[in-house]
Each structure stands twice: as C-alpha cells, then as structure tokens.
From TrEMBL, chains A, B:
<comment type="similarity">
    <text>Belongs to the FAD-binding oxidoreductase/transferase type 4 family.</text>
</comment>
<keyword id="KW-0560">Oxidoreductase</keyword>
<dbReference type="InterPro" id="IPR016169">
    <property type="entry name" value="FAD-bd_PCMH_sub2"/>
</dbReference>
<feature type="domain" description="FAD-binding PCMH-type">
    <location>
        <begin position="40"/>
        <end position="220"/>
    </location>
</feature>
<dbReference type="GO" id="GO:0016491">
    <property type="term" value="F:oxidoreductase activity"/>
</dbReference>
<dbReference type="InterPro" id="IPR006094">
    <property type="entry name" value="Oxid_FAD_bind_N"/>
</dbReference>
<dbReference type="GO" id="GO:0071949">
    <property type="term" value="F:FAD binding"/>
</dbReference>
<keyword id="KW-0285">Flavoprotein</keyword>
<dbReference type="Pfam" id="PF01565">
    <property type="entry name" value="FAD_binding_4"/>
</dbReference>
<dbReference type="InterPro" id="IPR016171">
    <property type="entry name" value="Vanillyl_alc_oxidase_C-sub2"/>
</dbReference>
<keyword id="KW-0274">FAD</keyword>
<dbReference type="InterPro" id="IPR016164">
    <property type="entry name" value="FAD-linked_Oxase-like_C"/>
</dbReference>
<protein>
    <submittedName>
        <fullName>FAD/FMN-containing dehydrogenase</fullName>
    </submittedName>
</protein>
<dbReference type="InterPro" id="IPR036318">
    <property type="entry name" value="FAD-bd_PCMH-like_sf"/>
</dbReference>
<dbReference type="GO" id="GO:0022904">
    <property type="term" value="P:respiratory electron transport chain"/>
</dbReference>
<dbReference type="InterPro" id="IPR051264">
    <property type="entry name" value="FAD-oxidored/transferase_4"/>
</dbReference>
<dbReference type="InterPro" id="IPR016166">
    <property type="entry name" value="FAD-bd_PCMH"/>
</dbReference>
Length: 467, 467
C-alpha cells in the first residue's frame, strides 16, 4: 500500500473514530516523533496518537486494524535500529503520555508502571522506597520502560540481574485488534500455560503494544567496589572472569573488557583519566555490589590480590571511594563521546561465545580493514554476558560506507556462530542480517507467531521480520 | 476420534514409517510408560516410540501429524498433573533413550545435553567440572531435564537462581510436522527477534518436543549456611525476608516458611528432629550460599543476631556444619513421607502475592474444613518466590473427596488473585481451573499460539488448553 492510499484510509478512520480516542490525536506531529536514535533520518507519519490510557490505545488499534492501516508504536525513541521510526503516511502511536508509577508492593518486591514512564523515573522511585531497579543504560533519562521491555534491553549489569526480560513479571498489552491482554502477574512462579508475557517482551512492537508492566525489584546494594585491571592477553581476561565468578560469587555486577584500540580512543576523550600506567593487551573493569562494606570490601581486595599472585593481572587500580568507581566507569562510558572525538562511525552490538571473542575481534578487525580503504575498528563489551560492542569507520570519509561495514561485520559474526544483535534488537537496520543468526526453522516459527497475533499485519510492518 | 479409529490409523502409519524410525518402536509397552506421578492411574498407549536421536523424533512426528494421530511426549514421568500420561490408543513418545552430556563450555558456562538426561546426571556433570547446575527438586534421580524444561520446573533455590526458564539458554525442538527447530544458542544476550525458546519451555509438550538443551551453569558455591527461625507471626516472616534480602544480598539461596500445622506433621515423621524448643506461629528455613567461609559465615551470624535484636526472631538454630544444613532441610523435605504418615491426601502448589499468604492460608484452611467433613490442611512453601504448597485431606476417608478439595482450594486462590499452579504445571488435573488464574484474553492468545504451531492438534491434545 502506498502513502496516498494509507492517507485516504486514515481520513476515513478518523471520521469514524470514537470521540474518546480522537482526542488522542496530536496535530501537527512534533519533530521528536519523526525518528529514533538510528541513523535513518526523519519520516512523517500520517497521524500521531498519544493516548492517555489503555482504552484509547485499544480504540486506535481496533480502528487501524479494521482499516488495514499500519501502526508504529513509540516510546522514548532512543532505539538504535529504527524500530520506532514512523512508516510514511501510517499511524504513529506514542506511549509518552502514559507515564507514572501505579503501585509499589514491598512484600512482593514489585512495581507496577505505565509503559511510557522514563527508565530513570522507575529507578528513582525504586531507590526512594529502599529498592533497586537493576536495568540501566546510557539513555536512562530519555528511554521509556515500555521500549526497554519491547526491545528486551540489556545494559551494564546483565551479568548479575539479567536482561529486561528477567526483570518483568507481568505485562498488559493490546493486540492489533484492540483486545487488551491482562497478564499483570506479580508472581515469580506461575506455571499456568504458555508464557504470554514473553511474547511481547523483545518483539519490538510487532505482536502487541505494551501498556503496563509489573517490574521486579531487588534490594538496594549496600556497597560497590570496582577495579580496572591491565592484562597481558585475552586468556587472562577469561581467567579473571572465572576467578571473579568464583571469588565474588553473585556480588559480581559488571565485567567490561576493553581492547587496546578502544582503550586508546577512550582515554583520548577530554575528561577521561587512564588509571593505569602503560598499555595492556586487554583492560577489564570489574565491579561488585555487596551488602556490607566491612565484609565485601576485604573480599574484593582479597580477590584482586589472588589474581595478582596467580599472574592473571599485570597492573590494577582499586577503587577507594564511590568517586573512583564512577571515574572507572568514565573510561567505559567514554564511547558516548566518540561521535564528537572520532567523527562519523557505525556501531555494532553482537553476541558471541565468550571464549571466541578475541579471535572474533582479530578476524573482524581484518575484515573491516580489507572491506573499507583504511578501515578502522575498536572493540569493547560485556564479555561475561557474551556481548561485544564494536565500532567501524573509514577515517576521513565524509560519507561512511555503511553497507560494506555491515557486510564485513555480520559475515564474521555468522562465521563465529554469533548473534547480529545482542541488545539493540533488529528493527529495520539489522533485518537484512537476521538470517545470519537464526535458523530458517526459527524464522518460520516467528512468522507463524506473527500471523497468529497480527493477521492483518498492521503492527510495525517491515520491522524485525516479514511474515 | 475413539480408540479403535486411532489404532487403525497407527497400524497404517507403522506400515508406511521409514525403517529408521520404526526401529524406535518398543513393544510391548513397559508398565513405567503407562502413567506419571499424578493420581490418575495407568492408561495404555496404542504405540510407544523411544527414539535414539532427533531424526527419529522428527520421523515419528511427521508420520503421526500426517495421519492425525495424537502424540504424548514422555520424559522421567515424574510430573504431578498428568501431562505425560498416555492418551488411550495414541502414540507415546519417550525421550528416555536420548540421554547424555554433549558439551561443557567453561568460558560460556554452559552445558549442552540431550532431553532425556536425568536431572541428577546433569547436576553431577556440572559439579565434576567445578560448576553448579542450580535446578533442584525431590525427583532429581528420576526426572529428565527435558521434562524439567517443558514444565518450567521450579524447586528450592528459585529465589536465587530462577526457574528452569532462567537456566535454559537454548533448545532444539521438533514441531508436530517434523520440522527440527535449532535454537541451541549459548548466548545470554540474543535480541534477534522473538524468543522462540520460551515457547517450548513451560508449554508441557503441546507446541513441540524438546530434544536438546543448552543449560546455564553457575559457579559452585564455596560454603553454605542455614538457620531454622521460630517466629511470633507471619508479619515477622515478611520482616525476616526483607532483612535476609538486604543483609544476605544475592547469597540468599532459600527461604522456606512452614505454618504450625505443617511443622507438627513434619516433626512427627520418623527420623526428623525439631531443632527448636516449643511451637511458633511460623517457622522459616533460611539458607545462604557464599563463596568463602571466613567472610560469609560471620555475615550470616551477624544477620541472625540483628534479626534477634530487632525482635523479628523468637528462637533460632544456626547450622554449625553441612550436616546441620541437611538436618534442617530434613524438616522441609519431610513432606515426601506424608503419604506414609498422613495417608491419602491431595497436594496443591499455588502462586500468591507474598504479602497475602497468611491470609490465604487462614481462608483456605476454613474453606477446606467447611467443604469436607473434618477436612484438614497443612501449609508450607517458598514464600520469597510467591509459592505456597498445601495439602488437604479428610482424615479416615478411604476415598478422598478430590473434587470438593480442589474446588475449595482453587476458589480461594481465585479470590486472592493467585495462580492455580506455581511449579507443577497444568496437565489435565488443573485444566478445569486454568481460567481461575488467566484472563480470557490470555487464554485466547494461548489458543492462537497452539493453532499456529500445531494446526492438526496432535501434540498432547487435551492437556493444558483446548484450542
């Protein structure tokens, strides 16, 4: 269906829409709703709805479904793969006005929130009640918890607390035909048939629109310790990871590896300080969240000493304060400034077996150098979760050779049995490479699920998978 | 379709079956394959297949699907709800000959196993490699890991490690039409489209037959401490839980509450010793798995002391050895002997908001006493996971009034917004009460999923949900 046909259907739909739902229409469409944080640029929807409650979401979806008009759900619009970018002339449905904490249940350690609530608001509400909401990522101030759910967001502390999927106990979601599915369970254990909740988490708004969530809270950590460790090789990083898992046990809350190419670029960012002297083949940020300074502080120090004695660590800096912990994270978070310091580049987020990451980095570095004249790359990531990030670029090129970079990276991912998306999702930008990571039979199962829940194919069509 | 019609179809199917698949036929059917651990009694299948590999599973399923013959998957046959009990005259397909560990990947902390492998074999293989497979339940010696997956088994340490779902990174499953779905990922992070794996976990063999699994391993705990705590009321149990979460942090590995009715019956089991003096309104077993005796031992003691000082605990026994830990678990595991000491009774496994459990126990006790002449009940469970177990019975009755007990219990569960099955699944025995815990819209989503993956309705028909 082309843009003109869709627009004419939208006009008909608006005329017949119940008044309660029509009041959710926002016209003109504000610039923020024209795209997400991908590099795809703006696209104008035919209509933007910002519903105030689930009933309005249901009314708009039912009308769009009856008219066969595509609907693109939007949250904080911080996605990197185009999942929330409008489809020309179609409906954009933003959850931005459905924001707020509805319930905090101390005994169940749960919080019930509306899908448009910013992640940072959720984190602060948890903290104010003496709890900890463990999902955290750079876009915390802008991203919405519904978007975190629909993309199954990851972040820095997955090694301890899991992905968004692991922090969501219940959802309320609206199917394309306007049916409201109430699966707002607060129960950790609920073996009563299929896990309906999991269908909506991570499906990037292609099966239903999440409107409410029951989130799992953890106790607020009593203390945090971190160290930056310089290592002689990647094998030492693996030994350090094994040692951290055994000695720090479940207090281990982050394990971030940085290759020398990343380290050099990160330490050149203004305001970032290198806490070590001299270069290393790999540098790791280890963090542990404990309950008691007097118990967990000495344990963390003893762990580092043992790793030194075993020859795993060449050099290390140990945090003496929470300020030090933040400074160490400064090196890891420096990548947020690379757009300024490096110039244009392409960012990747791939999943790999932990043991294969160094071999992958070597192969991928070569592939990028061969695919693009002078092509450069840097590697870093949450290796304990099997998640590697990398950037690739052609220095000095005014227009970056995106497709050549994509092909070089994703072919290497396929060769290593990896995943083309560990955290960021598929959206539209990674869709051409989905089959690098999923078997034809898995893709067929996905198609059957899509057809079962969205037979008219109105929800985010063209994203993730074509059914 | 009646038994005779199915039998005639089976005869035709066997004649046309490829020789490689026919060799999986086991005739006559051994008594063990006639039922599971539910109270439903034996039922004879029309044919039993025990395939040796995934290709044989696929060949049998493809033939059964073409002929419209129902297939009931079987594992260790320890399920309590009839999920693996044969359907008269139909095919039973047991994974018992597909057993073994295929791979143990240290860097990824994963193990790849065949679905028929007993849980205890998995646990021991993990331990031999210095790891810990955290799923544990009473039937460990008999139950198969594929059955644990297809029922999303829970057990004693969910509060720390999660359900089976949280310990499964990848699956290989065969669809009813014989399609082999390879989703054997070792990756914790894999945001490439829908989570296909989750469809098969917990669906009790109604969507596909799991043939292989990638399991998540944890580091082997360095030390274990436990205490039995006598409390003045349920509110103290909630305060103790909050304290344990804060002070023991992620080392907290079990929190088992036992009401006085349970405590009395458990301590009367031969060989079980009451470590406390005098009765309490609630008794809790707290366990923590640490990394280092010298650090985690004092922390556990300090936690108990603080709870005493705050008046949360009336009396407590602290483990001095791993023998003590096992003795404390003896009281909690005594329920395995209740068949002998109590006589016939009905066992329930319900999910409830943690804060509501004592009110539920009171209401349910009254409901059972009113529904059944002289009706008695005992209550215990993993309250930190929102999971309560209970037994109900009519003392002295030669035939237990199962339906009256079920109705009394499940009506109370519905009134409290709980789940009719926290761990055990639905099978056939809980199917009449499924709608007490799931909304009509959730049930409709389940039906759509069932129709999408099993359009001929051959996989475990009549179990969990009718589509």
């Amino acid at each position: 269906m082309d843009g003109t046909a869709i627009r004419s259907r939208i006009a008909d739909m608006l005329r017949d829409l119940p008044e309660a739902a029509r009041s959710a229409l926002v016209d003109p469409v504000p610039p923020r709703n024209l795209t997400d944080w991908s590099t795809l640029g703006p696209e104008c929807p035919g209509a933007l709805f910002c519903p105030r409650d689930t009933a309005q979401v249901a009314a708009v979806l039912a009308a769009a479904n009856a008219a066969g008009i595509p609907v693109v759900p939007q949250g904080g619009l911080t996605g990197l793969c185009g999942g929330a970018r409008p489809i020309a002339g179609a409906i954009a449905l933003s959850l931005e006005k459905m924001s707020g904490i509805e319930d905090l249940d101390e005994a169940s350690s749960t919080m019930t929130v509306l899908a448009g609530t910013p992640l940072e608001t959720v984190q602060r509400a948890a903290e104010a009640a003496g709890f900890y909401f463990a999902l955290d990522l750079g876009a915390r101030g802008s991203c919405a918890i519904g978007g975190n759910a629909s993309t199954n967001a990851g972040g820095n502390r997955v090694i301890r607390y899991g992905m968004a999927r692991d922090l969501i106990l219940g959802v309320e979601a609206v199917l394309p035909d306007g049916t409201v599915v109430d699966a707002l369970s607060k129960l950790i254990k609920n073996n009563t048939g299929y896990d309906v909740r999991q269908l909506f988490v991570g499906s990037e708004g292609t099966l239903g629109i999440i409107t409410r969530l029951v989130l799992r809270l953890h106790p607020r950590p009593g203390c945090t310790h971190a160290a930056i460790c310089g290592l002689a090789d990647y094998d030492s990083a693996l030994r350090l990871l094994t040692g951290a898992r055994r000695k720090l046990g479940p207090t281990l809350s982050a394990f971030e590896a940085m290759w020398p190419d990343y380290w050099e670029v990160a330490c050149a960012v203004p305001g970032v300080r290198d806490p070590l002297s001299g270069p290393h083949a790999n540098t790791v940020l280890v963090e542990a969240q404990g309950t008691d300074e007097t118990v967990d502080g000495p344990r963390f120090e003893a762990f580092l000493e043992e790793m030194f004695e075993q020859g795993v660590i060449e050099d290390a800096a140990l945090s003496q304060s929470i300020g030090d912990v933040q400074a160490f994270w400064g090196v890891r978070d420096a990548c947020a400034e690379f757009k300024t310091t490096l110039g244009p580049h392409h960012a990747y987020d791939v999943g790999l077996p932990t043991g294969a990451m160094d071999d992958f980095a070597r192969a991928c570095r070569t592939a990028i150098a061969e695919a693009v004249p002078g092509g450069r790359s840097v590697f870093y990531g949450h290796i304990g979760d099997g998640n590697l990030h990398l950037l690739g670029w052609q220095p000095g090129a005014s227009s970056q050779p995106g497709q050549a970079l994509d092909e070089a990276v994703y072919a290497t991912v396929r060769d290593f049995g990896g995943s083309v998306s560990a955290e960021h999702g598929i959206g539209t930008t990674k869709k051409p490479y989905l089959e690098h990571s999923r078997s034809p039979e898995e893709l067929e199962v996905m198609r059957r699920i899509k057809r079962a829940l969205d037979p008219n194919m109105i929800l985010n069509p063209g994203k993730v998978i074509d059914a």
